[in-house]
Design a protein that fits this description.
By secondary structure, the protein is mainly alpha-helical. The chain contains 2 helices and 2 strands.
């Protein structure tokens, strides 16, 4: 049970970190639309990656949520 709490906290911290990262100059370069990969700006590519990471964190979070009962217990 303690492992689930640890994993849950890691998921929460990672999700908050990704949300903060989304609005930093690392993701949104100031006054630039380049470099581009395949005609798509860098900031759009990074937002795709961050979205996928948030979806994965959400899935993991539903599996390790402390209030989630094990299927064997049902």
């Amino acid at each position: 049970m303690e492992k689930k709490k640890l994993y849950w906290r890691i998921c929460c911290i990672a999700a908050i970190g990704l949300c903060i990262l989304t609005f930093t100059p690392l993701v949104i370069p100031q006054g630039q639309a380049s470099p581009a990969l395949g005609g798509v700006p860098y900031s759009l590519w990074t937002s795709f990656i961050i979205t996928v990471l948030l979806v994965v964190l959400t899935y993991i979070g539903t599996r390790v949520h402390p209030g989630m009962q094990n299927e064997e217990d049902l």
